[in-house]
């Protein structure tokens, strides 16, 4: 299916809108009717009757489509508007203009009737003018093949649609097929079927109205109107006041001949075209005598043989003649099924449907000059509005929930660890609870700290007086682990002399059992302390962890002990810096720390190590600080995406995508590098298939990327992308739906043509 661009609205009915449109790649404008599906019987009827009519006085039908909620008809564009509008504007038309217009109406109607079609609802509103002023019949919704019952056709279409005929009442259908009473012939008001003859009555009404500017019969009530049509003559064409232009006798005779109440007395086709009013335009003598180009085209477009006098044989020969109207079998009642719109429902289809243009119809030449200034003004307003909106969207986008983090240390989703216990009986210091410790007076506190540090620093040399068995150190460290879970105590301890001692002991403790407990205490202090003074030697701690990870990179077990405390320290300083009014970066994180953590993210690493590294990025990047910046590299996006797509551990996949989501908040390039590397389609398939947390993160990233302004161009042009986002609106999660709206908002800000796609699909 092809693309259509929609420009401005040109007309509107109760359940339809008409747009000026253009098929992509073509320079011809078309009219595109977007109609409610409730009008399916009328439109199907129009299509079956109009699709075979090729005549210059009939609006050409091109094609039709169906989308979820609408039927779309693509038809000939007439730029002159309707005859009804023209009469209203001009108040009345001169007899010469009426003649010129009527010749078009006669030619068109003759062709329609010769095709076996009765228009039934002929009104000035349904006659359109094209650019050069040619009149065209535009609407066959209530038309029918001569002699057939339209009720039958409507009920067939309705039954096909509902799947059951039982809910369709005959009265409902009768009401639907009622045309305008103003142009309705008396015999039809009395209950007769519409016919060629009743169309000619309507033609008389239109001729009358063109000349006088008023309909032939006007009443305030329906019963009054019916009474006038049945029983009264219309007000005379000839006016009392000489100010009005007076009709010729020929014109008066013609109109009165058409407005005969008795259909038998009414002008028939052959008498009609023989009226002197036409000045022999339709006379055979004139046609045969005439040599002009116009006359030749007239011969081929006007078929003078009256339909009523044709035998069945004659009509068959007539339809075999290429110059004659097509009495096609295709609009018979047996062929309802053939008249179905092309489906434009396939959501995933690459085929475009109807795209709203963000610009008005392109103009030519001089108009362009006038239009330049406002266009420039508008676009600069747009830029300002958009940057405001981008800030607004960014602040709405990441919710508290999106930025919440879980611990890196002792996180059972990453690694299940046994709880640490100490033995109070063999503890070398009083086994105070954390609460009790925080109540100690300064002297006791200081003594307590000294004792702890002395034990940790004591060297285990055989025979030495202050020797401490490794078991005593281990027990003390286990005790410290338990009090570090108390945040007041952790804050107290991290600011004490214990912290540098612990950092020292990471290297100097006698074995890895003790070293790993030392690291654990440091990690717990970092994760539970609530504030951090500038003089705490965090830089040294971070450097020490980095060195040890590098030195022991081949041991996954050691890395599993070393990485979480390093992560908690980084998260601590990122949090502290975010709180500061003037962030200055007092603690230096060596580049090697980031490098070594990025290595831990790689494919082939131990999965727990992968998860810990991803978790650190997730947590650190949830804070806006310079410490997050260290993770923003070209490889971080693809590395996290790889973990997300290739890991078999669900918790790791969620951490990886969550980390990518948070890093995208700081730098949209992170997500863009993933799109560049793996391609949008594979990302979109993850959006569709992902669990709701994953969907949430992915929608957040798309919205963040669009809000960043960069990289958005290709995304907003991608129909598949927009369709997948629209599909997210089906989610039961309101957060997901809200995020999908933020994405769509930005798509539409950048590319209004997508609005129609959005409206069509949902
Ligand atoms: C096709 C069916 C319309 C209208 C609303 C029929 C206009 C005002 C100014 C200029 C042009 C138009 C115009 N042009 C058209 N060209 N082709 C069409 C739509 C034929 N149409 C209208 N109004 C309608 N709603 C349903 N049918 C309509 C014409 N106003």
Description:
Among the domains are: 169 residues, Transferase(Phosphotransferase), domain 1 (Orthogonal Bundle); 95 residues, no CATH class. It is 54% helix and 7% strand. The chain is built from 35 helices and 11 strands. Strand 2 and strand 3 form a beta hairpin. Strands 10-4-5-3-2-1-11 form a 7-stranded mixed sheet, sandwiched between helices. A two-stranded antiparallel ribbon has the order 6-9. A two-stranded antiparallel sheet has the order 7-8. Helix 1 packs across helix 4, helix 17 runs parallel beside helix 20 and helix 27 packs across helix 29. About 10% of the residues have low confidence. The protein starts with a strand and ends with a helix. It is an alpha+beta fold and 762 residues long. The site of ligand 3RJ has 18 residues, from strand 1, strand 2, strand 3 and strand 5.
């Amino acid at each position: 299916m092809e693309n259509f661009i929609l420009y401005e609205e040109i007309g509107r009915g109760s359940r339809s809108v008409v747009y000026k449109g253009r098929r992509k790649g073509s320079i011809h404008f078309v009219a595109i009717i977007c109609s409610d599906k409730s009008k399916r019987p009328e439109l199907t009827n129009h299509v079956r009757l109009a699709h075979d009519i090729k005549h210059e006085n009939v609006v050409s039908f091109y094609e039709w489509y169906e989308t979820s909620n609408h039927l779309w008809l693509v038809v000939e564009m007439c730029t002159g508007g309707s005859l009804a509008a023209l009469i209203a504007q001009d108040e009345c038309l001169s007899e010469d203009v009426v003649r010129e217009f009527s010749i078009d109406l006669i030619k068109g109607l003759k062709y329609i009737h010769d095709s076996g079609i009765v228009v039934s609802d002929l009104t000035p509103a349904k006659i359109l003018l094209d650019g050069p002023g040619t009149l065209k019949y535009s609407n066959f919704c209530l038309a029918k093949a001569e002699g057939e019952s339209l009720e039958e056709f409507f009920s067939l279409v309705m039954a096909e649609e509902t799947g059951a005929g039982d809910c369709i009442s005959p009265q409902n259908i009768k009401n639907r097929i009622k045309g305008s009473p103003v142009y309705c012939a008396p015999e039809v008001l009395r209950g007769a079927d519409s016919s060629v003859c009743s169309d000619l009555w309507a033609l008389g009404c239109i001729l009358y109205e063109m000349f006088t500017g008023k309909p032939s019969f006007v009443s305030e009530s329906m019963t009054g109107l019916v009474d006038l049509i049945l029983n009264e003559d219309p007000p005379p064409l000839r006016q009392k006041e000489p100010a009005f232009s007076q009709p010729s006798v020929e014109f008066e005779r013609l109109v009165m001949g058409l407005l005969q109440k008795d259909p038998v007395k009414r002008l028939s086709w052959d008498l009609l075209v023989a009226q002197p009013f036409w000045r022999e335009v339709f006379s055979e003598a004139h046609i045969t005598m005439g040599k002009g180009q116009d006359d030749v085209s007239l011969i081929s477009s006007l078929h003078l043989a009256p339909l009523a006098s044709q035998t069945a044989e004659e009509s068959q020969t007539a339809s075999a003649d290429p110059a004659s109207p097509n009495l096609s079998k295709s609009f018979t009642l047996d062929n309802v099924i053939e008249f179905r719109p092309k489906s434009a429902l396939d959501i995933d289809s690459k085929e475009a449907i109807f795209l709203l243009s963000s610009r008005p119809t392109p103009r030519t030449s001089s108009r362009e000059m006038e239009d330049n200034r406002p266009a420039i003004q508008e676009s600069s307003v747009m830029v300002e509005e958009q940057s405001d909106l981008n800030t607004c969207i960014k602040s709405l986008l990441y919710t508290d929930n999106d930025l919440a983090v879980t611990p890196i240390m002792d996180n059972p989703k990453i690694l299940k660890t046994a709880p640490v216990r100490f033995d109070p009986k063999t503890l070398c210091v009083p086994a105070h609870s954390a609460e009790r410790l925080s109540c100690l007076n300064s002297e006791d506190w200081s003594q307590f700290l000294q004792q702890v540090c002395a034990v940790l620093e004591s060297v285990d040399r055989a025979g030495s007086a202050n020797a401490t068995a490794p078991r005593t150190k281990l027990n003390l460290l286990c005790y410290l682990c338990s009090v570090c879970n108390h945040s007041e105590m952790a804050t107290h301890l991290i600011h004490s002399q214990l912290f540098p001692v612990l950092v020292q002991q990471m290297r100097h403790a006698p074995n890895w059992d003790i070293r790993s407990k030392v690291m654990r205490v440091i990690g717990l202090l970092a994760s539970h302390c609530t504030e951090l003074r500038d003089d705490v030697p965090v830089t040294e701690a971070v450097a020490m962890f980095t060195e040890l990870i590098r030195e022991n990179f081949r041991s996954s077990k050691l890395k599993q002990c070393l990485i979480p405390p390093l992560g908690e320290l980084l998260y601590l300083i990122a949090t502290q810096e975010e709180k500061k009014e003037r962030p200055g970066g007092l603690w230096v994180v060596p580049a090697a720390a980031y490098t070594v953590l990025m290595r831990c993210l790689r494919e082939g690493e131990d999965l727990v190590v992968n998860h810990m590294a991803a978790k650190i990025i997730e947590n650190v990047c949830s804070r806006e600080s310079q410490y997050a910046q260290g993770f923003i590299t070209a490889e971080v996006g693809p590395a996290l995406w790889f973990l997300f797509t290739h890991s078999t551990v669900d918790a790791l996949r969620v951490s990886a995508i969550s980390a990518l989501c948070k890093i995208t908040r700081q730098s949209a390039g992170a997500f863009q590098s993933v799109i560049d590397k793996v391609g949008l389609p594979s990302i979109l398939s993850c959006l569709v298939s992902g669990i709701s947390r994953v969907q949430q993160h992915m929608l957040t990233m798309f919205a963040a990327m669009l809000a960043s302004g960069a990289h958005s161009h290709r995304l907003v042009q991608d129909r598949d992308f927009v369709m997948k986002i629209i599909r997210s609106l089906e989610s039961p999660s309101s957060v997901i739906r809200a995020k999908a709206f933020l994405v769509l908002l930005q798509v539409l800000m950048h590319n209004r043509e997508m609005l129609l796609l959005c409206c069509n699909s949902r």
